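seq/struct pair 1
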Amino acid sequence: MRFITDAFDRFFKEESSSSMLLLGVTVVTLLFVNIGFYDFYHELLHQELSFGIAGFVISKSLTHWINDGLMAIFFFLIGLEVKREILIGELSSLRKASLPVIAACGGMLFPVLFYLSLNNQPEALPGWAIPMATDIAFSLGIMQLLGKRVPYGLKIFLTAFAIADDLGAILVIALFYSSSIHWLLILVALALFAGLLALARWGLYSKYLFFIVSVVIWVLFLKSGIHATLAGVLVAFAIPIRKRINIVHFQKNMREALESFESVSTPGQPQPILNNDQIGALSTIESLAGQVQSPLQELENKLHGWVAFVIMPVFAFANAGVLINAASFSNIGLSLIIAVSLVLGNTIGIGLFSWLAIKAGLSSLPEHTRFRQLAAVGIIGGVGFTMSLFITNLAFADQALINASKIGILLGSLTAGILGYYMLKLSLGRSREQMVA
C-alpha cells in the first residue's frame, strides 16, 4: 500500500508542477504575440516540414506536426494511464470506478447542454465538445496549492475523474471529429494492432518492434481520416502490464547478483574502475531491474516527464497564441458561451451526478471528504485547456471562430480555477473547524 501511495504522490507532484510551466508558457506566448510578434509567430508555426523516403513523404506545417505528431505521444500516455486504472487502479472495480465515472459523465453532458442551449450560431455548432474536457495538469496544480490540507481521497477522485473524462473526450474525437474514413487503411491498422496484442499475450514484447509498428499504425491513421492521435491510445492498450519476472524471483536473483558483485571485488582496486566480473554482475542487476517493472509502467514513468515538461508546453505555445484586439472580440458571444459552459456546466454536472450517485447508493464519498469539498472539485473540473484547445482545432477551420474559442477557454478556465481554489479552500477550512469542534 505504501508503494502505491508513494507512486501516486510522485505522479501528483509531477502533474501539478507541470501546470505551473504550462501557465508560464501560456502567459509568455500571449504576451509574445501581442507585443508585435504575431506575424513571426504565425509564419513559424506554418513552416512546412517534410519527412519520408523516396516515393513516400509526409509534408505538414509545424502546427500539424505538433498537434498530430507530438500529441499522439500525449494520447499514448493517456492510454497507458487509462489501461492501468481500468486493470489495477481506481477504475478497476464497479465500486471504485462508479463515483469518478458518473461524475465524469455529468462533467461531459452538462457543458455540452449549456453550449447547445446558449449557442444560436449555426457555424459554431461543431464546437459543442470544446467545454467538456478537464485539464488534469492544471486541475491537480490548483489542488496542490492547498498542500496537505487536501484529503488523499479527494486527490484520488480528481485524478480518476480526469482520466475518465479524457477517455470520454477521446471517444468523442473518434466518433464526431474524424473526416471521411478510408476503411482499408483502418483495417490494416487494426490488423497490426491485433498482432501487437497477440505478441503481448504470448509474452513476446519488444520495445523496438512495438515502436516501429506503432509508427506505421500512426501513419495509417494519419492517412485514413481518423485523427492520428487516436493511434496513440490504441497502441497503449497493447502494451503489457504484466511483469516479466515476479517479485520473489527478482529479490532472490538480485541478492545473488549483489553477492556475486561483492565476491569478485578486488582489494585495492581503483575506485572508478570495475573489473570484467563486476561488469557482468552489474549487467545482470540492470537486466533484473528492467524485468521487474512491467512495460506499461516503465513507459508511463519514462514518458511522464517528457509529456509534462516538453510536449504539453510546446502544444501550449503552438495553440495559445491569440492576438487580442478589437477584432478578437467580434464574436465575444461564442467566447462567453464556452466560458459559461466550462464553469457552470462542469460545476452543475459533476456536483449533481456525484450527489445522485451517492444518494442512490451507487457510490460513496472518498475517505475523509465531505460533499462540499467534492462540489468544489466540480468547479475545478471547469478548467479545460489542453483537450479543449485540441478539440477547437478539430471543430473549426475559420480563424475567427478559433480565436473566439481560445479566448473563451482561457476565460472560463481562469474563472473556474480561481473560484474552485477559493471554494475548496473554504470547504477545507470549515471541515477542519467542525472536526475540532
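seq/struct pair 2
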Amino acid sequence: MLRGMKLLLNWLLSAVALMAVAYLYSGVTVASFGSALLAAFVIGLLNVLLRPILVILTIPITLLTLGLFLFVINALVFWAASEMLSGFHVSGFGAALIGSLLYSALGLCIDAVLAPTRE
C-alpha cells in the first residue's frame, strides 16, 4: 500500500475511533465527523510535536511512577486538543484520561490492521 494512502486511511480510521470513544464514553463529545477529522489531526500533531518534549521533561517522575505518568501525558495531550477545538469537548481531566485510554486502545487496533504483513 502506498505510504500516503496508508497515512490517509490511518487518519480516517482515527477519526472513526474518536467518534467511537464519544459514543462509548459520555465524558467525550464530538459534534460531527468533520470535527472528528480535525480533532484526530490535532491530536496527531500534538503527539508528534508536544508529547516528546513532555516525555523528556518528565523523565524523573515517569521513572518514579514506573511509566504510569505517561498516561497523564496522553490525557493532557487529549485534553489540550479538546481545548483548541470547538466541535470536540472533554468534560475534565478524568474524562481525558479515560478517553485517551480508549482512543489509544482503538489506535493500537488500527495500527495492527494497517501493519504490513510478512510472508
